[in-house]
């Protein structure tokens, strides 16, 4: 399970806040990707509520020549919407879209408009600074490579005053393997000293 942490928990690219930020994690779990969020919003909606569906990747909106990049954990219901200038590095998503299923917890999403220096952050209806983000969803039959990421991918960006950072981190089994190797090495050294 490779956790792609969109470290919305860290304060990103010099943006500070009393509330921190949000973290998105993507884990490789068998043949699927598990996506989850944690942390808090630093902004409130500045646009009317809109529906949002679970998607990862890029899509081509009507009347536009460049695709929009999106990661969202949502079920199609109403979501709060905050828009603003986008700066920094968003994940290098592929020219296709993958559906996110099994969405639970709170809605989260972001979109980068590739035609303009513009983006959007989605969240629960009426979210405010300090609202907790704790969503989860599954991209079935997909790998990190499928969505344009590697185990060392990372970056940070902001949409207006909302900071977002992200990184791919090892799955828990990788830590177990590393700890097992350390334990074996320690046992070997102790035995050698005797």
Q: Total domains, how many?
A: 1
DSSP helical segment count: 1
Q: Order of SSEs, N→C?
A: EEEEEEEEEEEEH
Radius of gyration: 18 Å
Secondary structure tally: strands:
12
Q: Provide the β-strand percentage band.
A: over 45%
SSE class = mainly beta
Q: Regions with pLDDT < 50 over 5+ consecutive residues?
A: 1-18, 173-188
The overall average pLDDT, rounded, is 80
Domain Ice-binding protein C-terminal: 169-191
Signal peptide: 1-20
Keywords: Signal
Pfam family, one: PEP-CTERM
Short characterization:
Helix content is 11%, strand content 46%.
Helix/strand layout:
Elements: E1 3-5, E2 22-29, E3 32-39, E4 47-59, E5 68-84, E6 86-88, E7 97-104, E8 108-113, E9 118-123, E10 136-139, E11 154-159, E12 162-169, H1 172-193
Parallel strand pairs: 2-12
Antiparallel strand pairs: 1-12, 2-3, 3-10, 4-5, 4-7, 5-8, 5-9, 6-11, 7-10, 8-9, 11-12
Q: In words, what does this structure look like?
A:
This is PEP-CTERM sorting domain-containing protein. The chain is mostly beta strands. The protein is globular and about 70 Å long. The chain has one domain. 11% of the residues lie in helices and 46% in strands. It starts with a strand and ends with a helix.
Features:
1 helix; globular; PEP-CTERM sorting domain-containing protein; mainly beta; disordered N terminus; 194 residues; 12-stranded mixed sheet
